[in-house]
Amino acid sequence: MIVHIVLWRLHAQANGKSKQENALEMKRRFEALRGTMPGLRRLDFGINFEGSDQASDVALYTEFESREALDAYQAHPAHKEVAASITDLRTERRVVDYEV
Fold this sequence. Notes:
Elements: E1 2-10, E2 13-14, E3 17-18, H1 19-31, E4 40-47, E5 58-64, H2 67-75, H3 77-86, E6 90-99
Antiparallel strand pairs: 1-5, 1-6, 2-3, 4-5
């Protein structure tokens, strides 16, 4: 199994919306991907409630059957659409992929 985790920090304001509004929109968009791609076993999206300067604002946790399933997810048009829609919202993006 492959775990893919992404953490983002968001702009205070972007596209005419607050950080919280944009975080909720990201959550809606990512959660809409559940059940749409073969090999995607689990998808959780969380909005941070802790106000530390060291914290990220939002997190995506996903599990895939294989590296090939993760690659297919990355290349899938629905994922690419979501990724493109959030580019202007973020100030930072961190990723980790590992095998369990």
